[in-house]
Amino acid sequence: MSNSRRRGFLAAVALAIPLVVAGAPAASATAEPKIKVSGGLTQPVFSYKDAIREHVRVQSQVDSDGDGKKDLVRVDIIRPKESGSGLKVPVIMQESPYYDDPGVGFEIEKKKYDADGNVTKFPMYYDNYFVPRGYAFVSVDMIGTRLSDGCPTSYGASDVLGGKAVVDWLNGRATAYDDQGDPVKATWTTGRTGMIGHSYEGALGVGVAGTGVQGLATIVNISGYTSGYENSHANGTLTWFKGGARWQSERVDKDPAEKCEAVRKRMDAESDDETGNYNAYWDERNYRTGPISKVRNVRASVFSVMGMQDRNVVGSQFSEWWTKLPRTVQRKAWVTQYGHLDPFWARREVWLTTLNQWFDHELMGVSNDILRRPRVDVQLGPDRWITQADWPAPTARTTTLRPQQDGSLGRTPSTGTAGYVDIAQTEIAMAADPATANPHRLAYLTPPLKNAIRVSGTPSASLRLKLDKPTANLGVLLVDYGTDTRINYRERSATAAEGLTFIGGEDCVGESTADDDGCYLRGGDNTATSGFNVVTRGILDAQNHKSLSRSTPLTPGKSYQITWKTLPQDYEFKAGHRLGLVLTGANDDFNLDESGTGTGTDVEPGTGAKVTVDLAGTSISLPVVNGTPIE
What we know:
This protein is of the alpha+beta class. 15% of the residues lie in helices and 33% in strands. Helix 3 packs across helix 4 (200-209).
């Protein structure tokens, strides 16, 4: 959107929503409150206790369970009571599959209902915080979950199109019904909608945005995926457990199993766990270039949050989508060293202020400086944040390092060969004791760094190699060798996970009722001191080196040049540390058990193939921001 068009849009929004600016003459004591802005932020002037609570079922255009009827989508609403008497308000919308199981957020919240079927407790803080500021909050049960019809399809078309139907209804283009079956119109809203959510919820926002639906003004995507294939595969390798599509569908659906068994059998067959190849099933779940959702169709502005140590929704889910967004799309991002974490739990005060400003600007038309500040916040370590103009850092320049016969990393090609056998190992086992010979990995290190350097972007590895079998798992790790206190994204315990630890006490972040207190446990950075840290990783099934859709086994003994991307990163290597490259096989850290956490049964146990690497044709290319790892 051009600057002139954007100014026109902001003026139109300001006219649609009555605003009271702090410092203006006070209204009479009997006047209903209007949206109040102070310091570029809406203020809590509306009663949460007295808010209107209601629910409808929106008619979708899909029949996900094949029962011959289009699915109805349950929508629970809370909005300022003044919106019932003339005030039109924008909408913050959370479409979620989690309201049944496992619940929402670290405190595992679920909806509570009154005798009329209206929600008295909404999970998370969006209602408590934003309704008093003049927003409606709309909580949508994803198709196939909670009180919506149909079957969940593990990020398939119906998951997305159910959410799109709700945006259409909010903008007068779809029909909703009350409990008596009478049509209900959303006359209380401006239609401008912002979707927000974590993980699956964030992915649904991405999916709906990629339909190009009008009225969806912004999305806040927190650790949400953009490609279903990359949520369970990495370049042909199956990095999740087999049957993941079925498990995901069953996990979020508490209806009798037989209701959706036919749908799940179809997903079992079509997802093709046996080969790990990309196919039409995965293309439907591709929100970048797929048939349902395309990044080129995104009109909504975007605020993305990505933990670069996330093992659930890996960093490429952010980077590959972010760089393909149309240039006209307004955007902002936080790039962190956490795992699969909503920053509400770890950087709460800054997060709430930033989110408040973002929604105010994008949904209310409030004039503030949210888009004049640097676009990206980057976390470099515990309590260490910087800002930059974009992501990757615009100043990043490619530096190529090459393994040497003596175990070092240099600038010039070396000679000779080295080899390892492809087996599954944990990353700790792969990276530990790099000077010790290990038949299942090769390790190469730079000299100690004279100055700190940053890697910002997506490294790539290129190997010239021979195999003694038709395929192998080709793994690469980029490792920071040097003792330091870092975000501990690996720990999972009763009090810590994904780089977060609970520190005691609660913050109340909005207004409360007896059923919904709006108060949440305080968290902070979970840290650990260690001698090394795996910065990023990449893996490839060698037989997919030409195509992810088709397997091409290698000819044993023949030389191949194979290049692929690692996962992206934004990370600082401190002065005195050494940068390490580890070449290895199957990565056991990606093999999750059926709870979705921890290390489970090997999906990729290793082929046992011997990988012989020609050092002259082997390298890793790094996007480096400042300085160089080797003088």
